[in-house]
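User: Can you recover a sequence for this backbone? Please restate the input before giving your answer.

Assistant: Of course. Working from this structure:
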């Protein structure tokens, strides 16, 4: 794999670098491998947080006016300090009240998440919740197109 990437690199790099500086090639290859590994780790952690938060919301449905809360996506910062959790609330009535309850319960939710994932990550990220309104937007477009 390394030689294939080095050959690919030689296509875009000057000839002299490809022939003379093997050290530079290895530095560039290790840089790209490191960036790829970081992205893979972030994806794994965000999927882990998404799964565990979904389970937590299922168990605590009674605390949130018995609404079905779905974790759509989790985006996490590279330093693992902040996780942006996008939620969908069904049925759509009283979304603002449910969202206020979620914001109030944020420390409890972070604690429960920490107890679940403490062996996989060193630092439990701070949680920020957002309402994902893409389904409502798609429904409005559908209604407009059907008219």
């Amino acid at each position: 794999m390394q030689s294939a990437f080095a050959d690919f690199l030689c296509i875009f790099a000057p000839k002299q670098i490809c022939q003379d500086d093997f050290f530079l090639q290895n530095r560039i290859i290790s840089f790209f491998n490191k960036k790829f590994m970081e992205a893979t780790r972030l994806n794994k952690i965000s999927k882990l947080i998404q799964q565990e938060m979904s389970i937590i919301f299922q168990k605590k449905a009674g605390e949130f006016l018995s609404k079905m809360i779905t974790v759509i996506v989790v985006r996490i910062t590279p330093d693992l300090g902040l996780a942006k959790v996008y939620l969908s609330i069904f049925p759509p009535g009283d979304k603002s009240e449910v969202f206020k309850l979620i914001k109030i319960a944020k420390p409890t939710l972070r604690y429960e998440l920490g107890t679940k994932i403490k062996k996989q990550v060193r630092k439990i990220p701070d949680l920020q919740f957002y309402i994902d309104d893409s389904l409502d937007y798609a429904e409005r477009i559908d209604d407009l197109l059907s008219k």
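That completes the design. Strands lie at 68-76, 82-90, 126-131.
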